[in-house]
Write a structure and sequence with these properties.
GO terms for molecular function: DNA binding. Pfam families: HxlR. Keywords: DNA-binding, Transcription, Transcription regulation. This is HxlR family transcriptional regulator. There is one protein chain. By secondary structure, the chain is mostly helical. The protein folds into three domains: about 70 residues, Orthogonal Bundle (Arc Repressor Mutant, subunit A); about 35 residues, no CATH class; about 40 residues, no CATH class. It has seven helices and four strands. It is globular.
């Protein structure tokens, strides 16, 4: 079955999922966030085939999420700034998984402040002024990159959400 590409969609989420929508890609990024750099270590920690790992590492390089560096006789993979920014998404998914798909024994990994050992607070939504928001507090408006189809979809959503 041929994979559908969303690169031409007028939707930031769809375009991001073109890269992050494959679970192996997210797990590779998680491993890189945790300090994995070598091909064999990625393979050992993730339990994936060399062929799949090689394809995913190449894709993540093509999208500027990982960069490959020669280190003496070996090649190492490092997250770029773009790749490091995915940490918020990964942490959010981990916290969501701990809440809604918990193991009986508890969380397999607890993320903590490295300096103090204090666990991270659950990630949440806030506006640019720092005001915490719930889903019901969030609206949509067309951004500068919205095409006419997106603008019409947003108008429909706004009409449906307007007070009666």
């Amino acid at each position: 079955m041929e994979r559908v590409s969303f690169e031409d969609r007028n939707c930031s989420l769809a375009r991001a999922l073109d890269v992050l929508g494959d679970w192996w890609n997210v797990l590779i990024i998680r491993e890189a966030l945790w300090g994995t750099h070598k091909f064999d270590d990625f393979q050992r920690h993730l339990g994936m085939s060399k062929g799949i790992l090689s394809k995913r590492l190449k894709l993540l390089q093509e999208h500027g999420i990982l960069e490959k560096r020669s280190q003496g006789n070996s090649v190492d993979y490092f997250l770029t700034a773009k790749g490091r920014e995915v940490q918020t998404v990964i942490i959010s998914i981990m916290q969501w998984g701990d809440r809604w798909y918990p193991q009986a024994e508890g969380s397999p990994v607890v993320l903590v402040n490295r300096q103090t050992g204090v666990p991270l607070a659950p990630l949440g939504l806030q506006d640019s002024e720092g005001t915490p928001l719930e889903l019901t507090d969030i609206g949509l408006c067309a951004g500068p990159g919205a095409n006419e189809e997106t603008r019409e979809r947003i108008r429909q959503i706004q009409r449906r959400q307007a007070p009666s």
